[in-house]
Design goal:
Radius of gyration: 27 Å
Number of helices: 2
Shape: rod-shaped
Number of domains: 2
Structural class: mainly alpha
Order of helices and strands: HH
Distance between the termini: 92 Å
Largest sheet: none
Strand content: under 5%
Length: 85
């Protein structure tokens, strides 16, 4: 029984090492242009950093647009109320 358990542990370790090699080989060819967001591939640190930077830039842009739109609407509403008074 121990021999079978020992063999299965060895096979599991080999399979894990092979999987890590495949992931590493896939990640070495990865760039922001070739990366697909799936559960199968982990992005490299560089790709992840670029994805996060682009998401932050887009969020900042949308926040600035929303803020400008809010204050423009606020100014417009204030002018309408002032005209009624």
């Amino acid at each position: 029984m121990r021999a079978i358990c020992k063999k299965s542990c060895i096979f599991a370790r080999i399979a894990c090492e092979k999987q890590q090699q495949i992931i590493h080989n896939n990640n070495t060819d990865m760039s922001i242009d070739t990366y697909k967001l799936t559960s199968m591939d982990e992005p490299t640190d560089e790709v992840l950093s670029q994805l996060m930077r682009e998401a932050a830039e887009e969020a900042a842009w949308k926040r600035a647009e929303a803020t400008a739109q809010f204050f423009n609407q606020l100014k417009s509403d204030a002018q309408k109320i002032e005209a009624v008074w």
